[in-house]
Amino acid sequence: MDLKRLPFLPINFFYFQFGKPVRWLFVFLFGTLLLAAALFYHAQAFPEFWSLEIQEVTQNESEQLPIHTIEKNYREIPLSFNVYRQWTSYLAGPLLPHALPVSLFILFQFLGWTMVLAVASLIRSRWAYLFYLLFALFIHFTDVVRIMYPADAFHLLEFVVIASYLGLAYSFQMNYIRWKLPLRWLTFLALSGLYVGLAYLQGGWLAFHKMSVDTYPYLLVVGLAFVVFVAKEPTNLVMVAANNRKFPRHRLKAMPILGLYLLLLLIELVPFLHYAGLAELPVTDLGISPAMLLVIAAVFTVFTSQNQFFAVKRILSSNTAFTFLLLSWALISLSFFFLPSSEGDAVFIYALNRFTAEIFFGVAVMHVFFIYTNFYELLKARINLYYLMAQGRRFGFIIVSLFGLIVLVFAEGHHNWRSFRLFFHSLAVQYADHDLLNAKRQDAIASYQVALEMSPTAAKANYNLASLLIGDPQAVNEALKAYERASQRSFAYARLNAANVLLVNQEREKALKVLQDGLDEGNAYLANNLGLLYRQLGQPDSAIQSFKLALRHNPDLSAVYSNLGLLYLEHEKTKEATDFLEAALSVKPPAPAAITNAIYLSLKTGKRLLSPAVSLSKEADFAQQYNYLIYLMADRQWEAAFPLAEQLSEDGTAFDAQIAAAYLLFRRDSVPQAMSKVAYLAQSSVAPLAEANFMLGAAFYERGIPEMARRYFRLAGEYGLPQGQLYAAKTAIDLGMADSAQEELTIIRVEHPPLWDEASRELAMLLKAYGQDAFAQVEWDLSALSTKERMRISLYADSLGQYVIAENNFREILQQDSSYILPYLEMGRIYNKYGDELAILNLQTGLAKDSASVPLRQELARAYLLQGQGEQAAILLKHLPQNAETLTLSARLALQKADSSQALDLLLKAHQQDPLRQETILLLFDLLRQQNNWDAANDLITRALQANTENPGLWYAYALSSKNWNLLEDAGFGAAKAIELTHDEKRKQQIAKEFEAELRLLANEPD
Hints:
mainly alpha, two-stranded antiparallel ribbon
């Protein structure tokens, strides 16, 4: 034989022999094999990626923040709502199979096994029956038939299912059906799709997991046999890369090839020594993994084992069958190795690496010896050996494999067959996982305990066992011990959960030590939780360092940026807080807590981090949605806020949302409904009643109804909010109840020292309004009062009937600042209240300084009306904004002209714009009464009283309406309420005289 004329055999020579459909099928299956190989190696390197869920646990903290300030009567009242901030910690779930890897496993398995069956139908030899048997065993062990038909008689159906496959395969084999390989494979695949689909409909993806568990022992044998078969492929690959060239000048010399083999043997020796326990070597640090060699061998075996085809040519009559059998076997094996690895089973990963290292090293040593004893002289002559390596001279491949098995026996016997015990451990874990997925807690505990008998320190078994035990208060200590055993394997998530358990038990120091001891494991979640614990212990610097360490380990954790931002904001470092929260939002998708905290920072500091048009995901939690609601309210987006408030307040326990919804109802003039929501809160002992009542008080004050504001401010004070008592006292002064206000302010100073200054300042203003300047100066330095506070002194004086003091005080303000126009407005209102014609001159003077002032022009129009100058009033009103006050004034003008129809239209429009405006309500009531439209009048006053139960004018109107309908007791009740709420003694007597009979009837007194 002329060796120099041997045919060149390219590594992919078989591919060019395929027809076009078979080529496409090869490309598809080889691509699938590459995917399976990549998934397997990724699962080896990052097993928790596929099986471990890290949950973000948010702890809500709330704070009252003002969303805007109500400015009325020269007083500022903050309208505040609870706003949430969220600290995020982490909790790890159990290591469990998830749907994606299990589904991929089933898909790859059926792709591989149906191809095995399709290829077997091409074989004209009794060897085909071996492949039929292997496939039948796969169908049997998957238990797919029992899942489809979970009755006792499933065995008969299983026989039918297997017969359907084998009958079809036999028809192909005997050429009863003359289809090419792609159509045969697609037929088997379609049949499998039918059966697997029925199983999925019956049991869901858990049925897939049961199939994986049931086939575990069978596929383990198949997979380990595959490891033995491909162990020679790294050496084959070296030969192909160094020697398989068409021209001799491109082939390496013998010595470089020998050097490459020695390097390969060294690469395989290091893991072998480590896993066999013969030497402790830093395998991980060296980056050497048997799984890497296994993946390379599995992928290239389709090409590099083509030289073995000639050894089996008598059995497999075509290279097509051989190629696709190699592809299928590699796909079946790698997809099986992928599944336990993706389930976080570190013991299986270790056992497989150990088994692979032992087999690969033993086979490599013998294979190199085989090549050099047979072909050394040919290598020196640079002969292409890829073809010749199939023609063994002194001993064949079987001897190479046997030597590998001998090395395996030596290594395993040295450690009492440790790898196989670990594989049995993994099988027990598989059953435990399935019990856990099916909520069979006790069965899962028993299976994990069986697994731990074979490997007591296994991380996954201990960790999952602890996760099951933690639900039993009596087994907490046992769970902590299991977490500790799992931690011995540098499993950071066991530390994470153990620390969480200790914190729940208020054992902070132990939790701190657990977290600190695990920092060198490089786990970002541990560092984050440690930062939170440092914060609780009052060590902000250490907390910041821990959070930043977490970000070094994982810079994509939005929630950790959020925690850092909150911590800086807590210590009033707004710039740093803003930077970190912006970083939290820049991570896509941002953590829910990041959005919650960004809104919190915006409301607290005024720095807008989110667009007002931001939309929340459907998965947004309550705190995030609620903060966004307050954000919309602060941005005056009332229409967008209202539906969100209604949605959140549907939960009867969402008290903060109830308060916000009540305020939005108030803004929509649905005042009775707003009051009803607050009343509903009173039914719960944990409801924030003080904040709810203060909010209603502020809302009523904003709408110019001080009597109702006082009522709700007082309730807020009674429920424990001192500011409620303070504002109740202030509104008492507005209502002319000076004595009550003075008493309340004195009590506030004694009972609530933090409010001493504010109460003293209010007392000083009240005394000044009485004209008691000396006493006022004792309470507070009057020269330190602002202009607004001095304006309030005049209003206080007017409410107390101190007309001259009010006038003089206004003049003093103007002397200090002659450009100030508000004194002219307020004096004009006072003059109008008394019908004094000086109102016109006063208001005109103010308009000379600010001709565009709408309040001045409205008040001047009122003055003209009061002084009978209707034409002048009409000119002014014509050019004013048509708000409720202008419309009401226009109605008064129409009444002066005896045009009651126009007046009615104008008053109805004014009432529609502002249903709470008392002047409009009473004027409209009188007009309806004069027109004898008592139905409308009664309806008007009834609705008005639903929103305002503290106004004497409304109760007087109610008494009149009831008297007209001859409801004398109701009339007496209305009159009694009007008398009770009226502060003017003369007016009280007038009402009492007018309703004397009705009051007697109410009191059951004889005429």
